[in-house]
Specification:
189 residues; alpha/beta; Nucleotidyltransferase, domain 5; 5-stranded mixed sheet; 5 strands; 13% strand
Amino acid sequence: MLCITLGTGIGSGQILDGRLYHGATGGAGQIGHLVLEPNGPLRRCGKRGCLETLASGTAIRRDTLAALGHGESSVLMGIDREQLTAEHVADAARDGDKLALGVFERAGRYIGAALACYADINNPELIVIGGGMAAAGDLLLGPIRQVFTERALPANARAARITTAALGSDAGAVGAAALVWIERARYPR
């Protein structure tokens, strides 16, 4: 399975054969670094157009501000630009704001494309989407699932169930505690 957290950034981790998989240097499963647009926005890591620069909460805010700066009409025009967050954009999208819907559609399509690449390499049974942006629900899940189904190999797309995390904002703390518990049982003193 893959767990992806969508918030200010995009993080992820993978379980392979029932165990957390770290890779050779501890960086396995970092789907946020997957380059989808080689000429896209520059990220702090030096890459251009990686998933995090295209679909994180930070990207949603940036893209919304850019659209507003180009004069696109939106209820978001009434919010102080310094205070604007991805949550504001999600609220506007839920209310049918065209600009906000477009920004979330675009982010969801990028996430779906990245997950399709992951699925074609690792063939997961489950993809769990968590983090603050998961609260956007179908605003993201709709385009994610659509692009995932279009781009992943058909057998891989059918095998992977995409769902949201059940623990909400407590997931990180619960996961960290579980990891400590597992490691302690594995390596008793």
